[in-house]
Amino acid sequence: MKCGDRAGAAQSYWNLGLTYEDLSDLAQAEENIALAVQIAEQIGLPNLEEWQDGLKQVRAKRHGA
């Protein structure tokens, strides 16, 4: 898989995560956003920090913090 393909996959996981969050399916939101973060870390995407913050927020919501 090329880096560009991985960047697109990461963006897709991020978008899916946000959609699941909007649907109040926080487990699926966390899973997809975590995948986006993982790929972003691996390939050095510039929006990594934003996505890490989003993952923290979803985890906090999901676990009642």
From TrEMBL:
Name by which UniProt lists this protein: Tetratricopeptide repeat-containing protein
Source organism superkingdom: Bacteria
Native organism: Candidatus Electrothrix aarhusensis
